Amino acid sequence: MTALRTITRRATIVTTALIVGLTASYAPSHAAEDEARTTVTDHPGAPGTMLRQLEDLTGRPVGDLDTVLAVDTGGRNLTDDQLEALVAGKEVDGVTVVGTMPGSRDILGTTMADLADGTYDGSGDSGTATSLIFASSVPGGRNWCLTMCVASGKSVWECLLASRGGAQTFTLDLAGGTTVGGTKAAFEKVNGVAVDGPSTVETLTGDGEPSADEIQTLLDGGDIPSLRRVATLDRPDPGWALADIAEKSGVPYAKTKAHIFTFTLPFLGKFLAVCISQDGGKTWKCSARQWDGF
Known about the structure:
6 helices; elongated; five-stranded antiparallel sheet; single chain; 294 residues; 14 strands; alpha+beta
């Protein structure tokens, strides 16, 4: 029987950019105390300027631009849930997607007006959208960003970057005899999402139990002082038991053992699951973040 508990929630950055014509201010109810605002005058390179200014204000990367959506909202503000649904390719009542443009460095060098017709073509004369949604992600696909700029005149934009709680981190208590395939199935069950892999499994060893913050660092792909990486195996056999992976990796006995599995979620990128044992592999605590993107 697997026991499920929530450890933490990660921050997800949410933004969008509104086109000239929508002058009402926008203050999301989930806006956090660390929200950032900046003002940008539309010019060639305005999207890139906006994102760089927000990065400077928050000290957090907004990541790589994935997609830009030109959207007709009918003159009304959208909730954060509606924005996220549009980015995920879902329909929202009363909202028309005018065009979807793949993210690129070139788009960061154009104007807001150029993108209003849903195509990146150097012309902004026929724009019908009332909003632009810039969707970007940091490496690894775990943090998503959207930026919202409110027009205050024909060429001046007030931009808001707000943060809110994101996907949960789940921890499952598993027996040492649980297989790699069984571990994957357990996380798929609690997430309700199927994933590919694992493509790799890393083994780490140490002398003490990592803290909750250190586990989050491992889930982010970082290193921690209490555990060191000692082996990596590609495409582990789904039938291998958790207790046997270290031996199959050529790793000798250690007080604390950890395995980091790399899974792939279509369209969203790679996700990690971390399993840790302190009793010789008899029991494992396995953690992974929620895998539904938004």
